[in-house]
Predict the 3D structure of the following.
Amino acid sequence: MKLNYNKHYAEGEFDMDTIELVALPARPSKHERHPLICITEGEHCMNFQIAFLDFGSLEDENAMAKEIERRWNLAKKGGAQ
């Protein structure tokens, strides 16, 4: 299955079998306000933002982003927990 990505700065197709989800936590020291959820095709590839979380507490948002990343990548590997 293919995922079409079309933003004003990038566009293309990603193969759903090869992408991974990456959670980039917000860092208050860098004045970042919300964690980002991105897709990537490998360790040395560019991250493409697909979402961000904004529901209140920065700690809760960062924890939720990490949990979404963990569950997506675990499901991609075929593991269940």
